[in-house]
Design a protein that fits this description.
Growth Hormone, Chain: A
Length: about 250
């Protein structure tokens, strides 16, 4: 007998996925930096290093993990991604040390690359190009609703213990991976042809295409430079503003 989750349409599964992922991420990140500063006690240098580890890991694994989604299975890639994401945040919230936080960023960075692009490719395969635009719009609305709902929940739970939203969010990601394993279908997926499955070819192809595109449109190089410097600026601000608030003297101390 078919499992009841199998009766869910791809659109329904996609909306549940977008809502739940945004809710769980917001649940975690509402208190994440506060946890790093007040419980783990990370220094400003360590806070920046944590972000650098995450970004470097995502950069290094983006193409290799994308090959799995193109060759083997979008569904499998997404499930692995959310399993790794759940493990990462359970580790981060369970062990209040710099080493644990750094390790969690490596695990999450790899997990992120498994889901990056694979989710959009999966729903496009399942519903077709003519219906994927409205699906993306509804998914974005579901994600916004989930993110907003999570903020008060995270604050309430975080008042009890600031670790709890992180650990609970990680466990919920593990549950989400289990739900997807049962509910996701994959009827529209067509793996890459055998002649295009060489790892070196699949990695070199996008790089070569990007180089040729930049050569034809030099303005893209300027946009890449802007993106680089904006990322360098925003990473420091994003990681250090919480630390600044908690270490700045209050007016009564001045």
């Amino acid at each position: 007998m078919a499992h009841p989750f199998r009766r869910l349409s791809p659109i329904t599964v996609y909306l549940v996925l977008e809502f739940a992922a945004a809710l769980f991420f917001s649940l975690i990140f509402t208190v994440n930096l506060i946890y790093h500063v007040t419980v783990v006690g990370l220094s400003p240098l360590q806070l920046v290093l944590v972000g650098t580890i995450l970004e470097a890991t995502a950069f290094a694994f983006e193409i290799p993990t994308g090959i799995l989604a193109d060759v083997k299975s979008r569904k499998l890639s997404i499930i692995i991604g959310y399993l790794l994401t759940g493990v990462a945040f359970v580790v981060e919230g369970s062990f209040a040390t710099f080493a644990a936080v750094a390790l969690s960023q490596v695990i999450w960075g790899i997990g992120y690359t498994f889901t990056s692009g694979a989710t959009q490719a999966w729903i496009a395969d399942e519903v077709g190009e003519d219906r994927v635009g409205p699906a993306f719009m509804r998914g974005s609305q579901a994600a916004r609703a989930g993110g907003l709902l999570a903020i008060p929940l995270s604050v309430v739970v975080g008042i009890i213990n600031v670790r709890l939203p992180i650990v609970i969010g990680g466990l919920l990601f593990l549950a989400l991976a289990g739900f997807l394993a049962l509910a996701m279908g994959e009827e529209g997926f067509r793996p890459a042809p055998p002649g295009e499955r060489s790892t070196s070819r699949m990695m070199a192809g996008p790089v070569g295409d990007a180089r040729r595109l930049v050569a034809r449109q030099p303005v893209l190089l300027a946009l890449l430079g802007i993106g680089l410097f904006y990322g360098l600026y925003s990473e420091g601000f994003d990681r250090l503003w919480t630390c600044l608030l908690y270490t700045s003297p209050s007016p009564r101390d001045s």
